[in-house]
Amino acid sequence: MLKLILNRLAHSVVVMLAVALIAFSMVAFLGDPISNMVGQDTTVAERAALRENLGLNDPLPVQFVRFLSHAVQGDFGLSYSLRVPVSELFAERMPATLELSIISAIFALLIGIPLGIHTAINRDSFTTQAILSSSLVGVSLPTFLIGILLILIFGVMLRWLPTFGRGDVVMIGGWSTGLLTSSGLRSLVLPVATLTIFQLTLIIRLVRAEMMEVLRTDFIKFARARGIRRKALNYRHALKNTMMPVITVVGLQLGNIIAFSLITESVFQWPGMGLLFVQAIGNADIPVMVAYLMIIALIFVLINLIVDLLHFVLDPRLHSSGAN
User: Fold this and answer.
1) Which residues are paired to 171 by β-bridges?
2) Closest by alpha carbon to 206, among 96, 269, 132?
3) C-alpha to C-alpha distance for 76 and 288, rounded to whole angstroms
4) How far is the first Cα of the chain from the last one, in angstroms, to the nearest whole number?
5) DSSP string for residues in 293-307
6) Residues 6 or more apart whose Cβ sits within 8 Å of residue 186
7) Of 45, 82, 160, 245, which has the fewest CB atoms closer than 10 Å, so is most exposed?
8) What is the pLDDT of residue 153?
9) Residue 134: per-residue pLDDT
């Protein structure tokens, strides 16, 4: 276990260094930060003094090391457009994105795994065909279109649910949540439904395909021949082996949800990191863009590490052969 953790941590450090290099390139080569920080009335001498104070006259390797040291501390400078520390902006917006993404992932798992098992066990039933046909909606329609359709039906035509914003939130320490207010819960429904549908099709079809593959293996046939009950065979033996690839894909999907929830956040004007990133692109706010890139990379690295550890725990073959 320790060898696996150290190996994965080493890989993670390499990935984060590569992402940091890309992020630093954005800062160093995409426009002049001085021009974004000062007004038109600033003199050439004042610009030169500011450039010297910020260390922009130093060699690029020195600037990169300084950038890394600040990034490790969560310091990404000031937002060009909002004139506040970028770390404060993301600390304020991150709870909204994580709340939306994690709740969507939980609902997708709670719905998708049972439906995938049902369609694998009852392959030719009418309900299986209905589930598989309905699940094509999640594949065929892009996320923004699903969100717009939900807004049209439940927000405009029926007027049951709010169509934008997060509603009222409650602060618990430094964390803001809408789960404790009625308007916050109502505001969550449509964006959560949008992201859930986005994930649901993949989970259903993945669980179905893996379960059907496991049910055709020899050890399942032997277990069936020994007279093990069908329910125990399906849920104790087959499902356990089915979950290995599902854990991998679902883990990566969670990272994708957090990274690409910016589309859903834009549609519903959800005040999360994704909406902040979209606004930063429009304003050419490079520090915000860099911070988003670094945070998303870190989230993916952490999720991959957790998935690898879960594989090690759930697959006994890795205990004996060792993990590389």
Assistant:
1) 176
2) 132
3) 8
4) 11
5) HHHHHHHHHHHHHHH
6) 161, 162, 167
7) 45
8) 92
9) 82
142: left (phi over 0), alpha (psi -120 to 50) or beta: beta
Instruction: Quote the pLDDT of residue 113.
Output: 87
Give the closest residue to 167 by CA, choosing from 147, 196, 189, 136.
189
Where would I find the beta strands (DSSP E) of the chain?
Answer: 170-172, 175-177
Q: How far apart are CA 7 and CA 142, in angstroms?
A: 37
In this prediction, the residues of the chain whose per-residue pLDDT falls under 50 are none
Q: If you ran DSSP here, which 8-state letter would residue 78 be given?
A: B
Report d(CA 261, CA 196) in Å as an integer: 11
133, 136, 141, 142: CA torsion to nearest 10: 160
Separation between Cα atoms, residue 12 and residue 121, nearest integer Å: 39
Domains of the chain by start residue, with CATH: 87-273 (1.10.3720.10)
User: What is the amino acid identity at position 100?
Assistant: L
Q: Give the predicted TM-score (pTM) of the model.
A: 0.82
